[in-house]
Amino acid sequence: MATPLSRRTVLAAGTGAAAGLSLPGVAAYADDRAPSSMRFTLNARVLDGGEQVTSVTLDAARLGPIDPASLTTGTFTVHAKATSPIPIADGDAIFSEYDLDRTVTAARLDRRGNIVLDLSHAEGELGGSTLGYIAGRGRNVMLDLAYTITQQAPFALRDHRLITIKNFVQGRRLSDPEVDSFSSHISASGMKYRLYSPTGSHSARRGKRPLIVWLHGGGEGGSLPDYYDNETTLRANRGALGFATPEAQHIFDGAYVLAPQSTSAWMQDGPRFAPLIREIIGDVTRGNRIDHDRIYVAGCSNGGYMSMKMTTVYPTLFAASVPICGVVQSFPPGGPPLIPDSELVKISTPSWLVTSLDDLTVDPRANTVHAHDLIPGSLVTLYDHVVWNGHQFSGHWSWIYVARNDPSINGTHIWQWMAAQRRH
What we know:
25 strands, alpha+beta, six-stranded mixed beta sheet, disordered N terminus, about 425 residues, about 20% helix, globular, five-stranded mixed beta sheet
C-alpha cells in the first residue's frame, strides 16, 4: 500500500583527490608491509522515509594505531551501485536504483581504531537507499548493493608509516544495529517474523513483559517469485523499530516487539491471515515471559486494516489497537467493504486511529474517520500533512508520527496510552 518514492536526485561527487600527504616531521615513505586488500562494511540506519547506507567502516584497526589527522574527506572516494535483486518485467519500473559517487562528509576513527567514512544522506536523497520499490508489484525489495572504494592519498599510522591500500573488498553483511537487534524466525505455518526481546535492565527485571505486534504495510509483504525476505518489514520505515527504542522501552517497562511478514498483502485475505498471526503470537507468548493482559497491536495502511481485523476476529486478545491510515472500505473501490460496519460497531478493544487528511492513497474520511465514528469509544488523531524534521512526506505516511510517539490527546501521548491499557 505504501506509495512509490522516487529518489532520482543525483548526489555531487566526492572532493578532489589529494596528490599526496605531508605531515610535519614525518618521513613520506610507503610501507611494503601494508596489506594489498582490506575489507569494509556498509553501515545503515532506518530514517523515517526508509533505510539508507550512512557510512562505511574500513577494517583498518589491524594495521596499528592510525593518526586521525592524516584522514580527510579526500583520502577515499566511494562509488555506489544499487540494482534490483530480481528481474523487472517489461513495462514495469523499480524506484531508487542508482549508480553514482557518494559524498564523503567525514573520515574518522571509531572506538576500535577502524576508519569510518561518513556519507551524505537525508530524507529523499538519492544514492543511499537499501530498498527499491517495484511499481507493478507494489513491493519493496532489498537492493543488491555494490560499493567501490578508492584510496586517493595515503594515511599515516602513529609510528609514521604511510599506508596505501590497493583493493577494498565489500563484506556481505549490512550493519544496522536497530534492525540487527530483531531475531529472525519462521512459524510452523511458514510465515516469517522478526522479534525484538528486551535487553539490559529491562531483561533482568522480574515479572512478565508486554508484547507489541506491528503489522506492516502492503509494500513490505511477499508475493514475488522466490522473494520473501523477512527484511523489508523493519527497513522500510520505523514502525516496528520505534517500539524498540530506549524511549519506548522505558514507557512500556521493557516490551517484546513482534513483526510478522505477510506472504502477500494482509488485505488480500485477512480472515486467512488472522489465525496465522495468532499462531505466531502464541509461539512468542509460550516461549517468552509475556503478560497476556498487555498484548498490543498496531499497523499501517495494509497493516492498519489488519490491526482492526484482528480485533474483530479475536475480540479479547489485545489490550489496545492502533490502526494507522487503515482500510475498511473496498480497495480498490467498487467491491464490498473489507470490514463491514456490522463488525466495526462490535470492536471492544480500546482503539486509537491515526491518519493524515492529505492521504491520497487511502481516503482518510471514508476509512479512518468512518471507522472512528463506528468503533465504540475509539480515539482519533487527524493530521493535515505528514511533516517531520522539516521534511514533508507523502500524506499516506502518517505511521511516521506513531513511530515517533507524536499523537497526543489531552497531554497523553499514544505510547503512554497504549502502555496504560490492560486487557479486560
